Task: inverse folding
């Protein structure tokens, strides 16, 4: 019943606002949900250890989450981690931290789990904030505890796409239960380069987000001299109207989070977004995983290859390529020789 | 009560999301039983025009007649049936056929006198144009490097409205300008097919050749023998798909059958506006290339393509495609000339330039996600939450209450309700459980299994092939430079 009453109220709101100047005012009142994905790849955090560590990050994140929650009383958050390496049966990779599935989220906050998170958060904090922050810190702590001391890098696969998939399913469910009244967005705090990101599944996530009109924002933490290699994440932000920022001064992280990344998805059309316009649209080779700007594309399955397969068959769909076409592609450019201008040029050509 | 009738039907025709959908009290009053009808699937089949008889010979089917209560007066079985039907729809697409993804399609619109009829609102012609615009958008969204051309049939002639090109805006402009055109005269299948043949003649061998006809009339006025045209269509491997707005016409059926290797399913007759759109949108998905076709074709082409980067500029420079001053653009990776929009063929070095995201849209056709299996009912389950949306699953039923399908209490009280299904759908690869909402979302929109993607050890098809190459990952270098 509450829900119905709410909707009527909102409908009134819209009509009033439409009467004045624009409907934007009314939209401002509608709640939004934020999915935060934190990349906790230990190897990369080690690389950044002089500039920032996870403790600094989680401090800033708590402030950021509280900021988001304070904008509207029915705003929602959920937090995931990607790239953790805690081996064992309970899957490593990506995991959801908040809402926690371990601590039964009791609305009255009676069973806030064990003490770990409680000690870290000021007990006098506004209850809504404390509830989120405590569970977030607690879960993060328990994941870091399980982190192995030695890593088997051979099996490394960037699980950011998994975290994205989970948060998109989560958002899908939110949309179903809220009649699409809730706007959602995703923020990825990334430290890992894209080379290890599975290309197809990342692209699938991008298209799903595009269809659902969910902007994906990316905050890339990097060293000052680091080569920016987040090609796919850049493409993700571009396709979904999100914000991409590379941050090399992580000390001011709170500032970045609370200015650039608090922009609501329906304000994006009227603001100039703090994102970069130069975007690398290169792609990844299906076979070698190399990032390429010129490639060969199979006309049947559209897979991208950086080299012509030796057996002249598509490695993905097994179609036989036309030998003549292959021959043409393998041909190197030849310096043109005109017949009228006799011997000299021919000589040069033969020398070459 | 009467008021809510519409709402209820609307809900049923929209995809039903939850198998445990609580049937609301009062529904039985609104549901009318149809006596003596065949079973629902048969009815639908007939109505779609695919069955043995003609749809107009059958009794008129109301959409609410399909819904029937079971013996216990519950809708639960029907609802779960609808869920199953929805699942079956994507099951169809899982067969890993090769798909001809680079397509060339000629869209043919009937603009003869019958199109002025008002059985579709506001009239047939305007609705067709409206839907055709949506079709063009969707077509280029799903097939970004394909081509399209538009032809109309009017006054017994075939007229080219929009040249074959890959630019959706040209086609949409052409369609919009047709709104002023009055439908007139007779339609002509032969003329239009011959024109389509001519347009498709020069299409490169790696592209599919397709014709989509929206046919409102029940007649065709042809200058010669249409059967000869059909034969040459078959010879040139042009596939024809027809959407009839009125009733089945024998010649249309024959055209579809002959050009689609004996398959009649490419001929559809609309039931209503929504079905019209559905039939039109079916043509958006690329046609599967069957084994027999791929064996007939000796060589497929490999196309060299460039993936340019976008640049921003403070002052405008000339683009090489229109010689206009523009801010920013894309830089050809081969010759470094500036192009304003993609996809395009570089005017300088003749290389095809596209965004990699254009290609990636079709990859889910190539690597279809395995279907999730519904878990059998059991007294105990491993997972308590859906892996995707983290919603709690309904609790397992203790063995004391034996469960019989259809014996469901409808008072919405969870503890009293016995469950028909386990409501858990398990991915065969990663063994994570999902709810029905997530299952449908994952297979229809996302095309990724969150469980498989989240696991950093298991690898999927392509990655397994190239896993050896991962040994030389930059990660290795990083750790050495960081420590040393
Ligand atoms: Zn291929
Ligand atoms: Zn230009
Ligand atoms: Zn060029
Ligand atoms: Zn779910
Ligand atoms: Zn899976």
Result:
């Amino acid at each position: 019943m509450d829900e119905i009453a709410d909707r009527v109220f909102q409908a009134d709101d819209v009509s009033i606002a439409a009467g004045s100047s624009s409907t934007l005012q009314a939209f401002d009142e509608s709640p939004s949900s934020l999915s935060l994905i934190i990349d906790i790849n230990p190897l990369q955090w080690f690389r950044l250890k002089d500039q920032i560590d996870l403790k600094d990050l989680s401090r800033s994140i708590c402030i950021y989450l509280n900021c988001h929650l304070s904008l509207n009383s029915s705003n929602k958050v959920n937090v995931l981690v990607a790239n953790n390496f805690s081996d064992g049966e309970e899957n490593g990779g990506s995991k959801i931290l908040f809402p926690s599935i371990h601590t039964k989220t009791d609305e009255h906050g009676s069973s806030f789990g064990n003490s770990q998170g409680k000690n870290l958060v000021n007990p006098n904090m506004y209850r809504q904030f404390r509830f989120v922050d405590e569970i977030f810190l607690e879960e993060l702590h328990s994941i870091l505890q399980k982190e192995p001391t030695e890593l088997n890098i051979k099996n490394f696969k960037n699980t950011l796409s998994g975290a994205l998939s989970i948060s998109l399913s989560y958002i899908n469910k939110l949309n179903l239960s809220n009649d699409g009244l809730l706007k959602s967005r995703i923020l990825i705090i990334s430290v890992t380069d894209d080379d290890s990101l599975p290309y197809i599944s990342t692209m699938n996530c991008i298209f799903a987000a595009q269809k659902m009109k969910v902007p994906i924002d990316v905050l890339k933490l990097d060293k000052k001299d680091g080569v920016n290699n987040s090609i796919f994440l850049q493409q993700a932000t571009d396709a979904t109207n999100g914000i991409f920022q590379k941050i090399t001064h992580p000390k001011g992280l709170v500032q970045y989070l609370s200015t650039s990344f608090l922009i609501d998805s329906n304000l994006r059309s009227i603001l100039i977004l703090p994102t970069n316009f130069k975007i690398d649209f290169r792609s990844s080779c299906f076979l070698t995983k190399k990032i390429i700007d010129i490639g060969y594309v199979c006309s049947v399955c559209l897979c991208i290859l950086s080299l012509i397969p030796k057996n002249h068959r598509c490695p993905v769909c097994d179609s036989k390529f036309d030998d003549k076409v292959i021959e043409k592609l393998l041909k190197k450019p030849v310096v043109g020789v005109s017949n009228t201008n006799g011997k000299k040029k021919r000589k040069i050509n033969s020398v070459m | 009560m009467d008021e809510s009738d519409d709402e209820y039907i609307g809900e049923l025709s929209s995809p039903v999301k939850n198998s445990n959908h609580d049937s609301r009290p009062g529904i039985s009053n609104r549901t009318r039983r149809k006596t003596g009808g065949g079973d629902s699937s048969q009815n639908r089949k007939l109505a779609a025009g695919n069955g043995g008889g003609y749809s107009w010979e059958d009794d008129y089917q109301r959409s609410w007649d399909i819904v029937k209560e079971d013996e216990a007066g519950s809708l639960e079985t029907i609802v779960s049936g609808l869920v199953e039907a929805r699942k079956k729809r994507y099951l169809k697409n899982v067969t890993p056929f090769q798909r001809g993804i680079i397509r060339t399609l000629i869209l043919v619109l009937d603009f003869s006198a019958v199109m002025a009829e008002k059985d579709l609102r506001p009239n047939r012609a305007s609705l067709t144009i409206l839907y055709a615009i949506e079709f063009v958008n969707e077509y280029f969204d799903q097939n970004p490097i394909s081509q399209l051309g538009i032809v109309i049939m009017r006054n017994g002639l075939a007229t080219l409205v929009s040249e074959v090109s890959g630019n959706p805006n040209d086609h949409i402009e052409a369609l919009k300008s047709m709104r002023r055109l009055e439908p007139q005269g007779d339609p002509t299948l032969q003329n239009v097919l011959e024109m389509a043949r001519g347009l498709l003649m020069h299409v490169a061998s790696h592209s599919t050749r397709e014709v989509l006809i929206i046919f409102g009339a029940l007649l065709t006025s042809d200058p010669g023998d249409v059967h000869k045209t059909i034969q040459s269509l078959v010879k040139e491997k042009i596939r024809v798909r027809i959407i009839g707005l009125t009733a089945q016409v024998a010649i249309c059926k024959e055209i579809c059958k002959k050009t689609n290797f004996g398959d009649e399913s490419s001929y559809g007759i609309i039931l209503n506006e929504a079905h019209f759109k559905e039939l039109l949108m079916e043509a958006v998905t690329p046609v599967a290339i069957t084994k027999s076709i791929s064996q007939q074709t000796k060589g497929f082409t490999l196309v060299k393509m460039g993936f340019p980067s976008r640049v921003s500029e403070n002052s405008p420079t000339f683009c090489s495609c229109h010689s206009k001053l523009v801010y920013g653009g894309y830089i050809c990776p081969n010759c470094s000339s500036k192009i304003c929009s993609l996809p395009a063929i570089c005017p300088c070095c003749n290389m095809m330039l596209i965004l990699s995201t254009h290609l990636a849209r079709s990859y889910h056709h190539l690597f279809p996600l395995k279907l999730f299996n519904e878990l059998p009912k059991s007294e105990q389950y491993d997972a308590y939450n859906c892996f995707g949306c983290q919603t709690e699953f309904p609790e397992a039923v203790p063995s004391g209450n034996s469960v019989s399908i259809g014996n469901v209490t409808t008072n919405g009280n969870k503890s009293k309700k016995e469950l028909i299904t386990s409501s858990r759908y398990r991915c065969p690869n990663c063994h994570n459980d999902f709810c029905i909402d997530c299952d449908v979302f994952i297979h229809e929109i996302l095309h990724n299994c969150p469980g498989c993607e989240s696991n950093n050890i298991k690898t999927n098809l392509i990655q397994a092939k190239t896993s050896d190459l991962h040994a030389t990952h930059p990660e290795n270098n990083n750790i050495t430079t960081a420590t040393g």
Notes: Confidence is low (pLDDT under 50) at residues 1-26, 105-115, 342-352 of chain A. Chain A touches chain B through 91 residues (CB under 8 Å). Residues 176 and 192 of chain A are 33 Å apart (CA to CA).
